[in-house]
């Protein structure tokens, strides 16, 4: 969550203005008008109350807020890997900007590969040139950075996104996509052992291409859906 915190800080306070409390957001594995067809070997995960969908590799463990707040989940995942403690604890809060946490069940030399989906701001982001320089600067000050950050604009179905890639002093590689949505900027964050970086950055690229953001169902950005028969 350290990189996520840096990205949130780059939002110039917008991310600190959290939306009102709402019911826990379930992950739904389905296809709808708000999702893209997943690439082969991927499954689509939809978090309606957060207003996002993303396809992730089949076989990965995927958690949303309701999953993370389940009895004993934090303790179980902390035993599996201590690095899971902070993101799972953060995810369990209903108002957390972290909306989805996923990890590859096959670790490399005891070190996991993870993907986080974080809402970086809660306001309509405007054009790419209005936010990309600020977010690129935040990436260049990421905790544990070792060397330069490679940044580039990437055209995704969701819009023009910023991609940043760098290595850490703990011998991991981090790839971040900052993607615009109707209610703010979204950060898709991959952290993986550097020997797996080529493979896993390709996985994130396919996940990023599947990412969709929309107005949350029943969230603070619009009226709750009418009850059946209304």
Give structural notes.
- The protein is α+β, with helices and mostly antiparallel strands.
- The protein has helices spanning 2-9, 65-68, 73-80, 85-91, 128-139, 197-210; strands spanning 27-28, 42-47, 52-57, 61-63, 98-103, 114-119, 145-156, 159-168, 172-181, 184-193, 212-213.
- The strands form two sheets. The chain has a seven-stranded antiparallel beta sheet, with helices on both faces.
- The model is unreliable at 11-26, 28-33 and 219-230 (pLDDT under 50).
Bulk shape = globular
Low-confidence stretches: 11-26, 28-33, 219-230
Percentage beta strand = 25-35%
Across the major sheet, the strand order is 4-5-6-10-9-8-7
Q: What gap, in angstroms, lies between the N and C termini?
A: 42 Å
Short description:
This protein has 230 residues and is an alpha+beta fold. It has helices at 2-9, 65-68, 73-80, 85-91, 128-139, 197-210, and strands at 27-28, 42-47, 52-57, 61-63, 98-103, 114-119, 145-156, 159-168, 172-181, 184-193, 212-213.
What's the topology here?
Layout: H1 2-9, E1 27-28, E2 42-47, E3 52-57, E4 61-63, H2 65-68, H3 73-80, H4 85-91, E5 98-103, E6 114-119, H5 128-139, E7 145-156, E8 159-168, E9 172-181, E10 184-193, H6 197-210, E11 212-213
Antiparallel strand pairs: 1-2, 2-3, 3-11, 4-5, 5-6, 6-10, 7-8, 8-9, 9-10
Provide the descriptors you would attach to this structure in a database record.
230 residues, alpha+beta, 32% strand
């Amino acid at each position: 969550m350290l990189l996520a915190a840096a990205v949130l800080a780059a939002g110039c306070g917008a991310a600190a203005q959290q939306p009102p409390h709402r019911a826990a957001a379930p992950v739904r594995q389905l296809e709808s008008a708000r999702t893209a067809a997943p690439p082969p070997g991927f499954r689509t995960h939809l978090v309606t109350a957060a207003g996002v969908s993303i396809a992730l590799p089949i076989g990965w463990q995927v958690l949303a807020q309701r999953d993370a707040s389940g009895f004993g989940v934090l303790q179980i995942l902390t035993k599996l890997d201590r690095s899971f403690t902070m993101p799972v604890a953060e995810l369990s809060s209903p108002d957390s900007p972290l909306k989805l946490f996923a990890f590859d069940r096959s670790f490399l030399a005891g070190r996991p590969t993870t993907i986080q989906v974080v809402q970086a701001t809660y306001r309509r982001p405007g054009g790419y040139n209005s936010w990309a320089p600020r977010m690129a600067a935040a990436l260049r000050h990421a905790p544990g950075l070792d060397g330069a950050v490679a940044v580039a604009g990437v055209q995704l179905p969701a819009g023009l996104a910023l991609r940043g890639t760098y290595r850490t002093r703990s011998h991991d590689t981090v790839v971040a996509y900052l993607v615009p949505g109707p209610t703010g900027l979204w950060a898709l964050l991959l952290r993986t052992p550097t020997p797996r970086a080529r493979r896993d950055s390709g996985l994130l690229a396919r996940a990023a291409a599947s990412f969709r953001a929309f107005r949350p169902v029943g969230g603070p950005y619009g009226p709750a859906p009418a009850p059946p028969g209304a």
